[in-house]
Design a protein that fits this description.
Layout lengths: L9 H37 L4 H26 L5
Helix pairs in contact: 1-2
């Protein structure tokens, strides 16, 4: 047996990491949509006229969270001189 290390191609690692990130992002999106459907259905069971409002809130929530997180990240960046 040889004791030499086998070089791993860095590109393969990057490709695997990107594929894993895609799978995780897709899974997170599916879980978010499933949760939104369940909550909207639950609201519809209580008051059917509030269901469109709940669905609209779930449609607006991701862009609002992205705006808020971008704002917070901007506050944390050290200004260049």
């Amino acid at each position: 047996m040889s004791t030499q290390t086998i070089p791993i191609d860095r590109r393969e690692e990057l490709v695997k990491a990107k594929e894993q990130q895609k799978r995780q992002a897709q899974r997170a999106d599916c879980l978010y949509l499933a949760g939104a459907v369940l909550v909207t259905a639950g609201v519809a069971l209580c008051r059917w006229r509030f269901a469109p409002i709940a669905a609209g809130v779930f449609c607006l929530l991701p862009p609002l969270l992205e705006l808020a997180s971008g704002f917070v990240k901007g506050l944390r960046v050290v200004p260049r001189r």
